Structure formats: structure tokens, C-alpha cells
TrEMBL record:
Protein name, entry field: Dolichyl-phosphate-mannose-protein mannosyltransferase
Glycosyltransferase RgtA/B/C/D-like domain span: 51-208
Keywords from the UniProt entry: Cell membrane, Glycosyltransferase, Membrane, Transferase, Transmembrane, Transmembrane helix
Membrane topology: Multi-pass membrane protein
Origin superkingdom: Bacteria
Major subcellular site: membrane
GO MF term list: pentosyltransferase activity
UniProt source species: Chitinophaga ginsengisoli
Segments passing through the bilayer: 7-28, 48-65, 72-91, 97-118, 125-142, 148-178, 190-210, 241-259, 266-283, 289-306, 318-336
GO BP: lipopolysaccharide biosynthetic process
Compartments it resides in: Cell membrane
Cellular component per GO, a single term: plasma membrane
Amino acid sequence: MPRRAYLLLILLLLFKLVFHFLIIHPAYDLHRDEFLHLDQANHLSAGYLSVPPFTAFLSLLIKWLGGGVFWVRFFPALFGALTMLIVWKLVELLKGSWYAQVLAAVVLLCSVMSRINILYQPNSFDVLSWTLIFYLLALYVRTGTPQLLLWLGAVAGIAFLNKYNVLFLMVGLLPALLISSHRKMFLHKYLYGGLLIALLLAAPNIIWQIRNGLPVIHHMKELASTQLVNVERSGFIKEQLFFFLLGTLVWVAALLGFARYAPFKPYRFIGWTFLVVMAVFVYLKAKAYYALGLYPVLVAFGSVYLEHVFSKRRILGVWLRWLYLPLIMMPTLLFFKRIFPVLEPHQLEQSMTPLRREIFAKWDDGKTHSMPQDFADMLSWRELAGLVVQAYEKVPAAERRNTLILCDNYGQAGAVNYYAGRKVSPAITFSADYMFWFPAMDTLHYLILVGEEPREYVRKYTSGYLKTGQISDSLARECGTGVYLVEGISPVFPKKLRQWQLEEQAAFRAWK
């Protein structure tokens, strides 16, 4: 790699890492999903209801590093930077110049990838895994080195432990490779060695799923009934075009290149994989971001192909290659304050026109709101934790060990544990993985409820309650969430809690 390319790569990677720390306004807390992932470090297991176990062990590393917000935001930014690095190396493998490498990097920076990389969720590593799988396959096609198939199996196994979404990539790769000239790789012992490595890595989680009644099936059914039901197939396709804005031309160019550019002929299986996986996602009415892992490899191929096209246009090509870079950046710069949480929340709300809300603030419930869902999910968590601490301090010191904090959802429980974990007893909920994390409690004298006003099933076992606080920020998704101090707990209540816990756990089993 020329010295110029090395310097550009280093500068772009540094920019990528720093960028994600500069675009989040201090008014925002962590995201509700991040709290759940971070709390998994305190309950290590071979599996979880929400995600496979990779994120939990990464959360343990973050905990060892101090558990601060810096490290929570560092790792998704790092995975985004590593994705850019692999794309850069893929362009080099395809004999693209430094211009094609810069073009690919700019496309990734000025796309939804940068939005994904601000949140500590499995998505950033999922995209990195897909990109690395494609890179290893391209390298195998180029060099024929059989040991690469072992590495392919290792990456696939780790990707499975991060997010089951990688199975859709395998569904696309299988027919794409079988119809290609590379079908002979299925006769290679190293491929099956790689498959064995993948299975060995995935085995603990597969065993956990089987022992727990395959809760992933229940999770998918629940997702389909509550969120995917609001997804339109046409909407899925439209969102793919918005992910990269003017950079869309680059990944579309890759598909054209597979059909028309002779040097890309050995890699046509990548284009077929894209089409198969997209067809499966459209059929299943999947969320649009499930397909993000397909794009970095297309950006690499598209950048090389466009560089080739520009080079054949002489003077016009010179103008096009330099004009296209700022053109890619323009939409991101234009919508920067709505794509990223750089504005104070109420400033962002005031800047949202009806059209902007329709584009940027449509939530999983299919409705249009005042601000993007991810941003609303990053508000008022510190305030909530403070309200819980205030309620907890009203409990006599001698009774705090007999006090339970029960929340309506995993975001509330996780936020309390993250921001107030050392000041109060662990918060739990019947939501997500928390239903497995209830403490053994035979004696219960006080209950702190977070969420809606105590319902009949609680009131019948208590003598009374006091509302001690409420989230008032109208922009927070948790607006109106209250904190209630409940006392006079019946001795029967702990047993009822255990009964309800077991019922909730059983509901997640695919078989009873």
C-alpha cells in the first residue's frame, strides 16, 4: 500500500473513532437497549432471551474497564472503524487505487452506518462480521488458500453468538456459491473444518436455547406481532435507498459491475447473495436495518468499478471523480442535525417540520412522533434513577434489604441499575432477561414500583402506596413514568411474585 494510502487510512480511522464522541449532545443518556446489554455482564450465561451471549461478555469487558459511558460508546465506534478498514483492504485486493479507498470510506461515513455506530447494540458487530465473511471469501477466491475457510468458520461462529441475523447471510451464500464456479469448495475438507469450528463456537448457545425451550422462536413471534406487523414491503425497499443517500449510486454500481466488468466475474456470487438475502427479507417483512451487513462489501466493489468508469472518461472522468466526493457528503451535512443527536432535544423538536417527522420520526409502532425513536429512548434515564434513589431513601435503613424495586420494562430496570446501582438494591422487571434475574426474597416489607400506577394485582397484597416522583420531559419515551413507594406488603406477595415469574418464563418457551 502506498504511503499516501496509509496516511489517509490512519486519518480516516482516527476521525471515525473521534467523530462518534462529538455528535452526542450531553442532554442525552444511554439508550434503553444499552442498559439491558450492560446489565447482562452481571448475569453471564450461554444465552439470553434478547440476544446471544457475545454482547454480555463484551459488557463484562466494559465493566472491567470501569463501565463508563466512554467505553460504552467506544466499542460500536471501534467496530465501525474496523468495518472501514476491511472495506479499505478489500478495495486494495481488487486493485483499486487510494481514490477508490477514500470513496468507499466517505460513503460509509456519510451513511446510516455512522448512525448505527453511536449505539451499543449488536448491530455494529453484526455489520463487521458480515463484511469480514465477504472479505475472507473474496480473499479465498483470489488466493485459493484453504486455511481461510477455517477462519471463515470462526468468524461465522462468533457472528452467530452476536446476532442470529447472520443465518440469513448463510441462506444467501449457499445457493449463490452453488451456482458459481466456486461450487468445488464444497468438496474441500477445510470448508467442513470451518463448519465444525462454527458449530463448536455456537454449541453452548444452541444447547441453552434447546434447554430453555427455544425462546428465540417466541421472541421472533412477538417481534412479528408488535413491530414487523407495521413494516411494509415497499417501505423496506425505500429505506434501503435512503441508507446511503447519494452514496447509493456506489453500491448500485457494484451490481452493475458484477454483470459488466470482467475482473468482477469471479465475485459474482456476492451479487447473487445480495439478491437472495434481500428477497428473503422482503418476503419476511424484516426491519430495514437487518440488511445493513450486505452493503460494505458492495461499497468496496462499487468504488472500484466507478473508479474504472471515471478513468475511461478522460477529462469528464477527472471532474466526476472529484465532484462526486463532496456530492456524497452534501445530504449528510444538510440533514446532520436530524440524523445525529447533536441538538438539545427541545431544539431538535422545534426544528422538525411535518415532512421531517415523517422521514426521521416514524417509530416501530408505525406512528409519527416528535423526534426520532432512538433519541427519545435516550432521554430522562438519569432523572428516573434519581427519583428511585429518593424513594429508596424514604425506606428505613434497616428495611432496605427487604425492599424490591420492580419496573415495568427492561429500560427502566437497566437505567436504575446503571445510574444508581451502588445506591439501591438491584432493580428487576418481568420484561426481557430480567425475569430470570429475580433475587431470592422470602421477606418483603417495601416495594418501589417504576412505571404505571400500582394495579389491582399489587394493591390487593399491600396496605397503601405513595407517588414520590414522575418523569415530566414530554420528549422522553418514558414521559409520565412514575415512581411509587408501596408498603404494608402481605407475606403472601413474595410467593405470588415467584409464581408470576415462573409463568412469564414458561410463556417464552416454544414448547411447554
